[in-house]
Write a structure and sequence with these properties.
Blueprint: H1 13-23, E1 28-30, H2 37-41, H3 49-54, H4 58-66, H5 80-91, H6 98-111, H7 122-135, H8 140-146, E2 149-153, H9 163-170, E3 177-179, H10 193-205, H11 212-228, E4 233-238, H12 248-259, H13 266-287, E5 290-295, E6 297-298, H14 303-309, E7 317-318, H15 324-337, E8 343-348, H16 354-361, E9 374-376, H17 386-399, H18 419-437, H19 445-464
Parallel strand pairs: 1-2, 2-3, 4-5, 5-8, 8-9
Antiparallel strand pairs: 6-7
């Protein structure tokens, strides 16, 4: 039997039933990813597996470095076949790492190849995969369609023009809804060059900015621009969740320092972060948006490699921080007290904080008619593994209502990462099936069908209300 078979990852009979009868064929609602809208709009032809597999994939790059592969074959200019061979050498040594599962799933799902990729068959599989892509005239849009994706939310800078989203919407024959999502990370980088650059770009699009109020007004204009284009989600990538009380005068002083390129203390940065989250949440709440917060990464830790290959190249780690429970609760409470806490999804990169997040969200489920208004987001980045998914779902089940979980997302730049939804659905089905067989969940098909279909698709559909 092939390694990737119909019962892959399904380790109990109930789980097999739940996956095959309820989970497997549900459409995909990819409410957070990093796909390039230009590549979707242009319907780029995909004719080389190396480009699909290795371009921009820092997960694979980390594994290749652990294998001792030279950087030339990772982020360098080596020939596509040579890079693929080096990845094959790495993959056959990655047993135990989820990359082994993901890669074999992708070979099966997108190239109809059941063979296990090894150094010995790498060149043959390379040519088979590329022949398959060409014979099926594979494109970015066909990969999305064939993956049964109903909706995609990309990740977009506040100053993006969103023209590619307009172009996608105007195309006939492509039925997946593609919407922008507002990602204003640079607004929190007060005192850094990225913050100053953002101010200049916003001024060019809106109006002169000399005060915090000018800044907020400019951002609100851009939020409305996204809203007019169909955007209903915002996302924020924060290194740490910190709440610090602030006054209007303190924010004005910090902003003036930023304009004058003066030094800004860590305490002031966290004051400004609290201020920005609070002000942005007002606009999100007013428009019925969902606010997402990803926190807990420490980035670009290898200085030598940062100088050689740049940022986001696979040298990031899980961060820890002091007193997270206080800072997380205080941030949400600030918005709740003022009456503008929007629907919110919290994604923690450090799994030791799962129960802190789970117990925090339970404090703010206070709006009648909204099921789990504040969500514990799916296992993210270092946690979209079997172990990470199970930890997140177990914590959510302990602390809240797993029945209302909005489920999996790709959080990926790869057009073939939709296999991760299948991976998640298999793990979810086995997880629930195991609890049923242990007598911890009733063996009630109607109940189980509702739970599986809700988590796979229906909850996201009803929570975001985008299509």
């Amino acid at each position: 039997m092939a390694f990737i078979n119909e019962h892959f990852m399904l380790n109990n009979e109930t789980g097999k039933h739940l996956y095959h009868d309820f989970a497997k064929d549900m459409p995909i609602y990819d409410y957070h990813c990093h796909l390039d809208p230009k590549q979707i709009s242009d319907n780029v032809v995909c004719d080389n597996i190396t480009d699909l597999w290795l371009s921009g994939d820092h997960y694979k790059w980390r594994a290749m470095r652990a294998q001792g592969i030279e950087e030339q074959y990772i982020t360098g200019d080596a020939a596509p076949l040579d890079k693929f061979k080096k990845w094959a050498e790495t993959l056959e040594n990655s047993v135990g790492n989820p990359l082994y599962h993901w890669s074999q799933l992708e070979l099966k799902m997108y190239f109809d190849i059941e063979d296990l990729l090894t150094s010995d068959n790498a060149e043959a599989i390379y040519h088979r995969a590329n022949d398959y892509l060409k014979q099926h005239h594979t494109t970015t849009q066909s990969l999305i369609t064939d993956s049964n994706v109903n909706l995609i939310c990309t990740t977009d800078n506040p100053t993006d023009d969103l023209n590619y989203h307009d172009a996608i919407k105007a195309q006939d024959g492509f039925n997946t809804t593609v919407l922008p999502a507002f990602r204003p990370d640079d607004v929190f980088k007060v005192g850094d060059p990225a913050f100053t650059d953002l101010l200049q770009k916003l001024e060019n699009l809106t109006h002169p900015i000399t005060t915090p109020s000018d800044f907020i007004e400019a951002l609100y204009k851009r939020i409305q621009y996204f809203h007019d284009k169909g955007g209903r989600l915002a996302d924020h990538g924060l290194e740490e969740m910190h709440f610090e009380a602030y006054t209007d005068q303190a924010i004005q002083d910090i902003f003036k320092k930023a304009l004058n390129h003066a030094d800004i203390s860590t305490y002031e940065r966290f004051q400004f972060q609290s201020y920005m989250l609070n002000e942005l949440s007002k606009a999100y709440h007013e428009r019925g948006w969902v606010m997402q917060i990803h926190f807990g990464a420490i980035r670009n830790n290898n200085t030598k490699m940062f100088e050689k290959v740049g940022k986001d190249a696979g040298f990031d780690s899980i961060r820890d921080q002091d007193n997270l429970a206080y800072h997380l609760n205080a941030t949400l409470d600030m918005m709740e007290q003022e009456g503008h806490l929007p629907k919110t999804i919290l994604y923690n990169l450090n799994p030791i904080y799962n129960d802190i997040v789970g117990s925090t969200i339970a404090n703010f489920q206070t709006e009648p008619g909204i099921k789990s208004k504040v969500q514990h987001g799916a296992g993210w980045w270092f946690n979209d593994t079997k172990r990470g998914m199970l930890r997140q779902m177990s914590s959510l089940a302990d602390q809240g209502l797993l029945m209302h979980f909005v489920g999996m997302l790709t959080d990926s730049r790869s057009f073939i990462s939709y296999s991760r939804h299948d991976y998640f659905r298999r793990i979810l089905s086995s997880f629930i099936g195991d609890l049923v067989e242990k007598g911890e969940i009733p063996n009630d098909d109607q109940l189980l069908k509702r739970m599986i279909e809700n988590i796979c698709y229906n909850n996201a559909y009803n929570y975001f209300k985008l299509i």
